[in-house]
Specification:
With 311 residues, the chain is an alpha/beta fold. It folds into two domains: 92 residues, MurE/MurF, N-terminal domain (Udp-n-acetylmuramoylalanyl-d-glutamate--2,6- Diaminopimelate Ligase, Chain: A, domain 1); 182 residues, Hexapeptide repeat proteins (UDP N-Acetylglucosamine Acyltransferase, domain 1, 3 Solenoid). Helix content is 15%, strand content 31%. The strands form five sheets. It has a ten-stranded mixed β-sheet with strand order 8-11-14-19-22-25-28-31-33-34, covered by helices on one side. An eight-stranded parallel β-sheet has the order 7-10-13-18-21-24-27-30, with no helix packed on it. Strands 9-12-15-20-23-26-29-32 form an eight-stranded parallel β-sheet, with no helix packed on it.
């Protein structure tokens, strides 16, 4: 998320009760979690395993719970609890705005777009031309939708990311300040859920089509002309390139890439990145022809064991 205007690091230190390491007059332009950082951003790290990753990332500013010198070109905020400091900044710049109308007066809706009864359109939403938003669709704040998009009933666009920090007393919520961006000619079936980014954008590429009951996790980026059948579930921070097909009940693990033109057959589980242009099957996925050969061999095992027993 970009701030409305850059803010001095020392001002964020005052807001969060943290201490500046480096030049506190430097200007911070936005806040992002580690997967989405870019120059000018502030992020956080609170585990030794990820100190180097955060300090060497594209982020210019890091909230950290270790006394270290600021790397060249960066400045730090020292905090006993970086997660809580990060959340305090998010909630300061992206406060929850209660709605008083089914369609917010701040929403911008294009020419020829139809909003069916019972739909909810949140604050600062932008919807393009010639779209159809069916009954009981909920579109959360800051969502952006292109032209000729169809969204079927009871779908929820822009719910919070499923992202929590585990503590001894329970789970702390990572408040989401990202968006959902849906490009032109996308069709989304009934009862789908597309979560906003934690701090960046969840993106659905032009021409992509989704069946009913598809879930897309936070910060996932889906390419153009993809096809997802019913009950596909995609975790957060996944990159799906153009022309990918996921058939029914495919499950996709977090933080991986599915290459252009890949096809994953029904009920498969994707635990790691897949090369494009191939067909996959199984859980964990393999190339489909290898998996089918393996299954054929498994069917022959009883006969082979019987032969060995009778020798």
């Amino acid at each position: 998320m970009k701030f409305p205007q850059p803010i001095a690091l020392k001002a964020l230190a005052e807001l969060t009760g943290t201490r500046v390491i480096g030049d506190g007059s430097r200007q911070v332009s936005g806040i992002n979690e580690i997967h989405k950082v870019e120059a000018g951003d502030i992020t956080f790290v609170d585990h030794p395993k990820y100190y180097d990753k955060a300090l060497q990332s594209a982020a210019t500013f890091v909230i950290i719970n270790k006394e270290v010198d600021a790397p060249e070109g960066k400045a730090l905020l020292f905090a006993e609890d970086p997660f809580s400091a990060y959340i305090r900044i998010v909630r300061h710049f992206r406060t929850f705005e209660p709605s008083t109308a089914a369609i917010s007066p701040t929403a911008v809706i294009g020419t020829g777009t139809v909003i069916q009864p019972g739909a909810f359109i949140g604050h600062h939403v932008r919807i393009g031309n010639n779209c159809v938003i069916h009954a009981n669709v909920s579109i959360y704040d800051h969502t952006e939708i292109g032209d000729e998009v169809i969204i079927h009933s009871n779908t929820v666009i822009g719910a919070d990311a499923f992202y929590f920090k585990r503590r001894p007393e329970g789970y702390d919520k990572m408040y989401s300040c990202g968006r959902v961006i849906i490009h032109d000619r996308v069709e989304i079936g009934a009862n789908c859920t597309i979560d906003k980014g934690v701090s960046g954008d969840t993106v659905i590429g032009a021409g992509t089509k989704m069946d009913n009951m598809v879930h897309v996790g936070h910060d996932t980026v889906i390419g153009r002309n993809c096809l997802f059948a019913a009950q596909v579930g995609i975790a957060g921070v996944v990159t799906i390139e153009d022309d990918v097909i996921l058939w029914g009940q495919v499950g996709v693990q977090k933080d991986l890439t599915i290459g252009k033109g890949a096809v994953v057959l029904g009920k498969s589980g994707v635990p790691k990145s897949l090369e494009g242009g191939k067909t996959y099957f199984g859980s964990p996925t393999q190339e489909a022809r290898d998996k089918m050969r393996e299954l054929a061999l498994i069917k022959q095992l009883p006969e082979l064991l019987e032969r060995l027993k009778n020798r």
